[in-house]
Design brief:
The radius of gyration is 18 Å and the shape is globular. The chain has one domain: Methylamine Dehydrogenase, Chain H, CATH 2.130.10. It is built from one helix and 28 strands.
């Protein structure tokens, strides 16, 4: 059983011309409503890709104030910061017919300083811990583009499985884990050789992957039958399978103790304790919002969850596992929070 086109990421809509449900226009400037928001990680910013309007919203996490709107390419999705927070890389799934680009934003002035051509329908981007390379999955090409950040040029193109989507890099920078939606597996790329060194079978239609801060485990969301596979990175074998209804995207807290999994079909976020691999809570979101991507603040005190359908951002306080506020940005499949103060 293959998932609906939506579950192959909103990039497919850009490629196939499908319609999405319209929501608030992310280009509207001004102050975003705040409700019961406690002090968050000081000085950090959330960069949110808005796929319908082709731009990125910049939100100050301390006040949830919109500070900038940056035009990028068509149908932007994946967002990633360099380790120092000085640049943001954005995968534009529909920049040109059949091919895509990556926009490079300088955070000091929120200016696009480079546009890098990559493969067809780039979806997600991850940056190595040293910040020297950005890895980009090309959903329709079945490849991963490797961008050297010092020159913003593609230095390698790595064939992986069919329809690669989510990816994550181990904390030591040695390996990149890439989920292949139609391959029902995970490709492991060795960064020193830029070649696939292992292929790990998981559940059907895996969509995203998150790696613990220690690098010991990789968590993979499987749309069918509704589960999360836990891969031991030392052996590249699945050591546990956690039932989760409608799992979409995943993020692990900075401490590594909690895994958040967005549940697209039930408008909720599943909370998994990594020490036991047990589901310990479910955080309900606005009905019909269609939660997309989730990202933690640097301290792990809050998590930001995008909405595919309604264009709202939900903020979860991790201590109480509850939503403290929600506000309008745009229909989004990408968010990243700066690792430190960038302005």
């Amino acid at each position: 059983m293959k998932p609906p086109q939506l579950l192959l990421l909103v990039a497919v809509f850009a490629a196939c011309g499908r319609d999405t449900v319209s929501g608030p226009d992310s280009t509207a400037a001004g102050t975003i409503p705040v409700s019961a928001l406690k002090a968050s990680s000081a000085g950090s910013f959330a960069y949110v890709s808005n796929f319908l309007t082709g731009n990125v919203s910049v939100v100050a996490t301390s006040t949830n104030t919109l500070t900038a709107t940056i035009p990028v390419g068509d149908s932007p999705e994946g967002v990633a910061f360099t380790p120092k927070g000085d640049f943001v890389y954005v995968a534009n799934a529909g920049s040109t017919p059949g091919y895509g680009t990556v926009s490079v934003i300088r955070t000091s002035d929120n200016t696009v300083t480079a546009t890098v051509p990559v493969g067809s329908v780039p979806t997600r981007v991850a940056i190595t811990p040293k910040g020297d390379f950005a890895y980009v999955t090309n959903l329709s090409s079945g490849t991963v583009s490797v961008i050297q950040t010092s020159t913003n040029t593609v230095v390698a193109t790595v064939p992986v499985g069919p329809r690669p989507a989510g990816l994550a890099i181990t904390p030591n920078g040695g390996f990149v884990y890439v989920v292949n939606v139609d391959g029902d597996n995970v490709s492991v790329i060795q960064t020193s050789t830029k070649a696939v060194v292992a292929t790990v079978p998981v559940g059907d239609n895996p969509i995203d992957v998150a790696i613990t801060p220690t690098g010991d485990f990789a968590y993979v969301t499987n749309w069918v039958p509704g589960s999360v596979s836990v891969i031991a990175t030392a052996t590249n074998s699945v050591t546990a399978t956690i039932p989760v209804y409608g799992p979409y995207h995943a993020a692990i807290s900075p401490k590594g103790d909690i895994l958040y999994v967005t549940q697209l079909l039930s408008d909720a976020v599943a909370v998994i304790q990594t020490s036991t691999n047990a589901l310990i809570a479910t955080v309900p979101l606005t009905a019909g919002s269609g939660p997309g991507v989730v990202a933690f603040t640097p301290k792990g005190d809050f998590a930001y969850v995008t909405s595919i359908y309604t264009g709202t951002m939900s903020v979860i306080e991790s201590a109480g596992q509850s939503v403290t506020t929600s506000f309008a940005v745009g229909e989004s499949e990408g968010v990243a929070v700066s690792p430190k103060q960038v302005k």
